[in-house]
Amino acid sequence: DSGVTQTPKHLITATGQRVTLRCSPRSGDLSVYWYQQSLDQGLQFLIQYYNGEERAKGNILERFSAQQFPDLHSELNLSSLELGDSALYFCASSVESGLVLNEQFFGPGTRLTVL
Amino acid sequence: AQTVTQSQPEMSVQEAETVTLSCTYDTSENNYYLFWYKQPPSRQMILVIRQEAYKQQNATENRFSVNFQKAAKSFSLKISDSQLGDTAMYFCAFMKLPGNQFYFGTGTSLTVIP
After folding, report:
1. Is B7 at the interface with chain A, CB within 8 A?
2. pLDDT tens by residue, A68-87
3. Which of A82, B48, B50, B114 lies 20 to 30 Å from B66 when distance is taken between CA atoms?
4. Between B91, B100, B106, which is nearest A98 by CB?
5. Which SS3 state, helix, strand or coil, does residue B36 take?
6. Measured distance CA(A13)–CA(A41) in Å, rounded
7. B24 touches chain A (CB under 8 A)
8. Given A33, A40, A96, which is nearest B101 (Cβ)?
9. Burial A13-40 (b: 16+ CB within 10 A, else e)
10. Nearest by CB: A42 against B42, B95, B105
11. Nearest C-alpha of chain A: how many angstroms from B16?
């Protein structure tokens, strides 16, 4: 158990819908990272938040957005869902912002299925 | 941009034997780190081993070791005395600083055969 929690574990929805994925980082970790893992692919970095502020952006679609709240939990919002958005979404957390190497601890992931 | 390539989609090895997984990467950065992660059927991402680019000595963690060739931009993982529990997807990953974001390869599916 990494200490990072993600809810829900599984999510099934229809095209065109909107969903919210939630992540709670390890106690004391200020950075949260979101990754998308499509079928038979490696993880793709989406976005990073540090202490409530967006720190870095990767290959995140405009239909996707995220935020980090004062209690440091983070939410990833996916809207106008398409079949291709079906994937495993991972959240990871680390202590620092990324100026020095911090180990990232991964949550168990949320499996999103778009029908 | 950073790219990570794993050219072996699938591999298998007999239990107790040794197997090597390949990884190459492309970057213009000088300060970076390389990782191997294991993803068993549970889908949990588990850190296997890490290598700092500024270190010439290859990292070792018990049965896992790497062959880091910086000039060739190659970072292979050797698993010795393979065990059934090693069956998993293995991802090579690159990280540069500042930033701390991972760039992952597409993975190698390793099956350990009893």
Report:
1. no
2. 999 999 999 999 999 999 99
3. B114
4. B100
5. strand
6. 22
7. no
8. A33
9. beeeeebebbbbbbeebbbbbbbbbeee
10. B105
11. 27
User: What percentage of chain B exceeds 90 in pLDDT?
Assistant: 77
Cα separation values, B80 from B13, B15, B18, Å: 10, 10, 4
The encoded tokens of residue A61 equal 């679609």
The pLDDT confidence band at residue A97, using thresholds 50, 70 and 90, is: low
Q: Looking at residues B99-111, what average pLDDT do you find?
A: 90
* Exposed/middle/buried for residue A83 (C-beta within 10 Å: 0-12, 13-18, 19+): exposed
**Interface touch B100/A31, C-beta < 8 Å:** yes
Q: Nearest Cα to A109, choosing from A28, A59, A38?
A: A38
If pLDDT is split at 50, 70 and 90, which confidence band does B100 have? confident
**A2 min Cα distance to partner chain B (Å):** 9
Bridge partners (DSSP) listed for residue B95: B33, B102
Check B100 against A42: CB less than 8 A apart: no
> Which residues fall within 8 angstroms of residue B37, CB to CB, at 6 or more apart?
B45, B46, B47, B48, B90, B91, B93, B104
Q: What's B110's DSSP letter? A: E
Considering only CB atoms, B101 lies closest to which of A41, A45, A111, namely: A45
Q: Which of A13-27, B67-81, B85-99 has the lowest mean pLDDT?
A: B85-99
